[in-house]
């Protein structure tokens, strides 16, 4: 039986539409888009079509879409660039003190690292705490906002526990209380999983990545609200208006556009595709393991439908994950980007999960086309794996 892959938050396999678009672009638009001949023009046209289609499909028509390679890069470009652009005005507001950058405490490591870069540059970087389900509460952010803030960075959806943030509310608060600040939003997990227009998040800069929604890895976008400006970070040939120099990956962007279109069509056809499956998976898991602790908000409407994270009392996530893999079910543990068992996930710390449970968290992440039988199979494999691990030490002893 083929393996059941439930780790789409780490990487989702390229959709057939994306593979077809990728192959067609490699065949027909392989030239350098900067070249002045017909082949170059064809590549440039394909690239610009893909860019425009992506902005439209994701729901940000009229926004500037800067193509880059990874979510990490898009987040760095947005968060660091926006902070640098606002720095002098925020310092003036601080009366000569340092400009402040506020970074959510449950952000992906790449955004927290962008905060570390800003700290080295002399920004006063502060964490915005999350509550026990991973939410940045508006009142928590409001208490930190003053005119000396240059940047607020809060993700749209958490990659480990799936909490959705009230981004539009947080961005509006930021505009009202810290008028010099830019709002950067990491929507790498959110895009392709939600039907709303991405522009409705109402941030100034938004990062998205192809490989989380069925595109081909190596393509990502930073979306910039009309009028948003960034200082140029890259030396090179001046592509992407100087924001991201280097010969463009036409095939990657074409595949990204095709994948985004396919995801949008799925969500139009079946708006509850993800939530319905997440709910069924939770029911199945609970029925075999009533002691499981579900992480994230209790209310479905505050969760990303694609991620279900559970703490498994008494278990070591890595061992359980391997036992599940041996049974043909592939899941994640926390974030794949810091998958070492020795690294305690800062997200689990940020939500204040009991230390004894921190090494026990499994993340099931869905694409939205799993069958009821798939979800039942995942729960059955989980029950078997857990039972086996419970008896193994005794047998060996
Ligand atoms: N942001 C979030 C929320 C993510 O889940 C990830 C990857 O897991 C990233 C950023 C980084 O994206 P990439 O691996 O494409 O650099």
Task: Please describe what this structure looks like.
This protein has 397 residues and is α/β, with parallel strands linked by helices. Helices cover 41% and strands 13% of the residues. The protein has helices spanning 16-28, 38-58, 71-93, 109-120, 138-144, 167-177, 250-269, 273-288, 317-326, 346-350, 372-396; strands at residues 4-5, 64-68, 100-104, 124-128, 149-153, 182-186, 205-209, 220-224, 293-294, 307-311, 329-330, 361-365. A 7-stranded mixed beta sheet has the order 2-8-7-6-5-3-4, with helices on both faces. A 3-stranded antiparallel beta sheet has the order 9-10-12. Helix 1 runs antiparallel to helix 7 (250-269), helix 2 (38-58) runs parallel beside helix 7 and helix 3 (71-93) packs parallel to helix 4 (109-120). It starts with a strand and ends with a helix. The model is unreliable at 335-341 and 393-397 (pLDDT under 50).
What are the main properties of this structure?
7-stranded mixed beta sheet; single chain; 11 helices; 3-stranded antiparallel beta sheet; 12 strands; about 400 residues; disordered C terminus; binds pyridoxal-5'-phosphate; about 15% strand; alpha/beta; about 40% helix
Number of strands: 12
> Rough shape?
globular
- Give the percentage of residues in beta strands: 5-15%
Give the spatial strand order of the biggest sheet. Answer: 2-8-7-6-5-3-4
Instruction: Please describe the biggest sheet, giving its number of strands, its sense, and whether it closes into a barrel.
Output: 7 strands, mixed
Bound molecules: pyridoxal-5'-phosphate
Mean pLDDT: 95
N-C termini distance: 33 Å
Task: Supply the helix-strand structural class.
Answer: alpha/beta
Helix residue percentage: 40-55%
SSE order: EHHEHEHEHEHEEEHHEEHEHEH
Q: Number of helical runs?
A: 11
Question: What are the low-pLDDT stretches, counting only 5+ consecutive residues below 50?
Answer: 335-341, 393-397
- If you compute it from the alpha carbons, what radius of gyration comes out, rounded to the nearest whole angstrom? 22 Å
């Amino acid at each position: 039986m083929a393996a059941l892959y439930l780790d789409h938050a780490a990487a989702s396999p390229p959709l057939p539409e994306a593979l077809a678009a990728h192959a067609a672009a490699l065949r027909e638009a392989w030239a350098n888009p900067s070249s002045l001949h017909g082949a170059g023009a064809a590549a440039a046209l394909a690239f610009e079509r893909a860019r425009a289609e992506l902005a439209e499909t994701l729901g940000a028509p009229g926004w500037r879409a800067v193509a880059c390679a990874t979510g990490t890069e898009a987040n760095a470009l947005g968060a660091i660039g926006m902070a640098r652009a606002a720095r002098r005005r925020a310092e003036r507001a601080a009366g000569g003190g340092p400009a402040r950058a506020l970074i959510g405490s449950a952000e992906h490591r790449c955004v927290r690292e962008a905060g570390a870069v800003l700290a080295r540059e002399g920004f006063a970087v502060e964490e915005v705490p999350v509550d026990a389900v991973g939410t940045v509460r508006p009142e928590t952010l409001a208490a930190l906002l003053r005119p000396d803030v240059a940047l607020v960075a809060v993700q749209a959806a958490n990659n480990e526990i799936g909490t959705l943030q009230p981004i539009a509310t947080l961005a509006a608060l930021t505009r009202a209380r810290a008028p010099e600040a830019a709002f950067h939003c990491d929507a790498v997990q959110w895009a392709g999983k939600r039907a709303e227009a991405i522009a409705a998040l109402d941030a100034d800069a938004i990062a998205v990545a192809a490989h989380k929604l069925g595109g081909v890895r190596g393509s990502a976008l930073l979306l910039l609200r009309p009028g948003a400006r960034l200082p140029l970070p890259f030396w090179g040939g001046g592509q992407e208006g100087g924001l991201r120099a280097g010969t463009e990956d036409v095939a990657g962007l074409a595949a990204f556009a095709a994948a985004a279109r396919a995801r949008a069509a799925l969500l139009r056809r079946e708006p509850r595709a993800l939530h319905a499956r997440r709910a069924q998976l939770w029911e199945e898991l609970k029925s075999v393991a009533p002691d499981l602790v579900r992480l994230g908000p209790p209310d479905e409407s505050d969760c990303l439908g694609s991620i279900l994270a559970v703490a498994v009392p008494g278990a070591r996530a890595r061992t359980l994950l391997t036992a599940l893999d041996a049974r043909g079910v592939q899941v994640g543990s926390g974030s794949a980007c810091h998958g070492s068992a020795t690294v305690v996930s800062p997200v689990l710390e940020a939500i204040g999960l009991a230390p004894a449970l921190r090494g026990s968290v499994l993340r099931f992440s869905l694409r939205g086309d799993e069958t009821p039988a798939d979800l039942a199979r995942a729960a059955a494999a989980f029950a078997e794996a857990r039972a086996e691990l419970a008896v193994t030490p005794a047998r060996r002893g």
